Amino acid sequence: SRRVAILISGGGSNMAALIASMTGDHPARPCLVLSNVPDAGGLRRAAEAGVPVATVDHRAHRGDRPAFEAALHRELVAAGAEIVCLAGFMRVLTPGFVGLWEGRMLNIHPSLLPKYPGLDTHARALAAGDAEHGCTVHEVTADLDAGPVLGQARLAIRGEDTPDTLAARVLPLEHRLYPAVLRRFAAGDRRPVLIEAGASLSNPPPLA
Ligand code: GAR
Predict the structure, then answer these.
(1) Interface predicted TM-score (ipTM) of this complex, two decimals
(2) What is the pTM of this model?
(3) Which of 45, 82, 85, 141 is the most buried (most CB within 10 A)?
(4) CB 54 less than 6 A from any atom of ligand 1
């Protein structure tokens, strides 16, 4: 099966969803969780799940991005990674590094790309008066948050939503979307996964 490395900077809830999904007949298995933040909460969760962990602290490289990325690359190669999933990894990667993993690196972003690349996506969707919001999994290319879309999950924005309530409603969609995309991608299928919140298929109500 395909060996998947997951890059994190924080709590790692998407990482945990990805790891939990890679069982049974799944075409991939986790081989490494790599953090640029030494005390990222996700590192402990990964270790508890039995996945090897490593840290490459960007601050140890003093603004030397190529050196930081060379260290990341060494860890990925040492782990035998074939697919790299960015999951709340909050460092911008250079075109040089992205080129090494092009076609093999995915990212999840908390907006309906191409809307709102970058930060503060929930506040920006609200400020724009959008009716819909959600998250996107895409292939990572040299342009930030702009690679080919592999899946999106959407929800309807409510009048009472705040950036926090939106974040809290988008995150569970991320946890559904990212594993669904990875499963397809690892099997060589790049057709987009589309999820509509609240529109999951289920049995009709029983006949009274
Ligand atoms: C997620 O909402 C993810 O989409 C976002 O950070 C959060 C990480 O949460 N990523 C970005 O904003 C990328 N620029 P997690 O650590 O619990 O998965």
Answers:
(1) 0.99
(2) 0.94
(3) 85
(4) no
Contact yes or no for 28/182 (Cβ under 8 A): yes
Atom from ligand 1 closest to the CA of residue 145: 14
Residues 6+ apart with CB under 8 A from 106: 83, 84, 85, 86, 137, 138, 139, 140, 150, 178, 181, 182, 185
Distance CA 159, CA 193 (A): 27
- Characterize 22-32 residue by residue with b for buried, 16 or more Cβ atoms within 10 angstroms of its Cβ, and e for exposed: beeebbbebbb
The pairing of strands 28-35 and 2-8 is: parallel
pLDDT in tens, 62-93: 889 999 999 999 999 999 999 999 999 999 99
Tell me, in angstroms, the distance from the centre of ligand 1 to residue 110's CA.
Answer: 7
Do 186 and 4 contact (CB within 8 A), yes or no? yes
For the CA of 171, the closest atom of ligand 1 is 2
Pick the residue whose CA is nearest to atom 9 on ligand 1: 88
DSSP bridge pairs for 34: 7, 54
Strand partners, 29: 3
- How far is 165 from 27, CA to CA, in rounded Å? 34
- Mutate which of 6, 8, 13 for ligand 1? The one with the most ligand atoms within 8 Å of its CB, which is 13
Q: Is any ligand 1 atom within 6 A of the Cβ of residue 87?
A: yes
How far apart CA 87 and CA 104 sit, in angstroms, is: 14
